[in-house]
């Protein structure tokens, strides 16, 4: 097992997953036209509690996230396909796909106001990964409730 990834695998695989995590966060955070501080805080909290995400270097994810948000701001809709491509690598990898979408859900609800554009983006990303949005939402809500109960 690799200490930097929490899983077996090469550094390139780890970098690909870091990029997918940052891409899903950037797409969700910018779905409502603004990336807010509470969304970034939610990302950090999710990374520390999700068993698949907790092995990633949060600083690397943060730097990549900043780069992707800047790319979205500079290129607008043109950045979306490039970022989506990074996420699509995890179609069929249910464990990582579910972690990506639980993280996306946390970003979506971080500001306690979910707008239609966020819901559409969340559903689109779920479809790309072959996941049922309702299942991901329920699992994410249950996980947050459990974390609250445990004081995490």
* CATH secondary-structure class: Mainly Alpha
Helix content: over 70%
- The ordered string of helix (H) and strand (E) elements is HHHHHHH
CATH-level-4 superfamily name? TerB-like
Name of the CATH architecture: Orthogonal Bundle
Q: What is the end-to-end distance?
A: 26 Å
CA-based shape: globular
The count of helical stretches stands at 7
Content of β-strand: under 5%
CATH topology: TerB-like
Radius of gyration: 14 Å
The pLDDT mean sits at 81
The low-pLDDT segments are: 1-8, 144-152
Main sheet summary: none
Number of domains: 1
Q: What structural category arises from helix and sheet content?
A: mainly alpha
- Number of DSSP strands? 0
Question: Explain this structure to me?
Answer:
- This protein has 7 helices and no strands.
- The protein is 72% helix and 0% strand.
- The chain has one domain (11-147): TerB-like, CATH 1.10.3680.
């Amino acid at each position: 097992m690799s200490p930097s990834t929490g899983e077996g695998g090469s550094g390139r695989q780890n970098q690909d997953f870091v990029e997918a995590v940052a891409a899903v966060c950037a797409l969700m955070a910018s779905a409502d036209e603004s990336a807010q501080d509470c969304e970034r805080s939610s990302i950090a909290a999710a990374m520390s509690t999700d068993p698949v995400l907790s092995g990633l270097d949060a600083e690397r994810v943060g730097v990549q996230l900043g780069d992707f948000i800047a790319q979205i701001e500079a290129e607008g809709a043109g950045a979306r396909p490039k970022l989506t491509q990074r996420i699509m690598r995890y179609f069929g990898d249910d464990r990582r796909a579910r972690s990506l979408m639980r993280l996306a859900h946390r970003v979506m609800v971080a500001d306690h106001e979910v707008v239609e554009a966020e819901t559409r983006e969340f559903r689109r990303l779920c479809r790309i990964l072959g996941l049922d949005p309702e299942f991901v939402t329920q699992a994410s809500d249950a996980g947050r409730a459990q974390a609250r109960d445990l004081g995490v």
